[in-house]
């Protein structure tokens, strides 16, 4: 009888943990959805239709760059730095600024090893 009660207790505890974990996941997903909706709402107020289309196309190709531009636009909107809706040409200027700031400089350095490499001897 003791093992039966112990098993039921385990089942109850496991089911409680499972439902609590599922509830936390659901709350996390709802929070992400609310954040996404809020971002889209702010971007709809800040960008005109052609600029939104360009940003959406950029998000398909380079999501990290599009996210950086979105964050930049949302920050500017929150601080009141934007005078009105940004057109496509204005978005292109912002994209160029972000590209210059996040541009990765790549250098290639050849490091040749000169071990027993003699051109004086000719191998036939």
From TrEMBL:
Protein's name according to its UniProt entry: Programmed cell death protein 5
Gene Ontology cellular-component annotations: cytosol; nucleus
Family that this chain belongs to: Belongs to the PDCD5 family.
GO biological process, one term: apoptotic process
The keyword Secreted belongs to this UniProt entry's keyword annotation: no
Organism: Seriola dumerili (Greater amberjack)
Presence of the UniProt keyword Glycoprotein in the record: no
Role according to the record: May function in the process of apoptosis.
Stored InterPro entries: PDCD5-like, PDCD5-like_sf
Gene Ontology molecular function, alphabetical: DNA binding
Keywords: Acetylation, Apoptosis, Phosphoprotein
């Amino acid at each position: 009888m003791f093992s039966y009660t112990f098993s039921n207790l385990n089942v109850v505890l496991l089911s409680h943990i499972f439902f609590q974990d599922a509830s936390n996941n659901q709350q996390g997903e709802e929070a992400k959805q609310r954040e996404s909706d809020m971002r889209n709402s702010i971007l709809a107020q800040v960008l005109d239709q052609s600029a939104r289309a360009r940003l959406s196309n950029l998000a398909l190709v380079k999501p990290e760059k599009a996210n950086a531009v979105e964050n930049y636009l949302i920050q500017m909107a929150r601080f009141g730095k934007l005078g009105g809706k940004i057109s496509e040409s204005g978005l292109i200027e912002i994209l160029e600024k972000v590209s210059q700031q996040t541009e990765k400089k790549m250098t290639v350095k050849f490091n040749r090893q000169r071990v027993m490499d003699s051109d004086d001897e000719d191998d036939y």
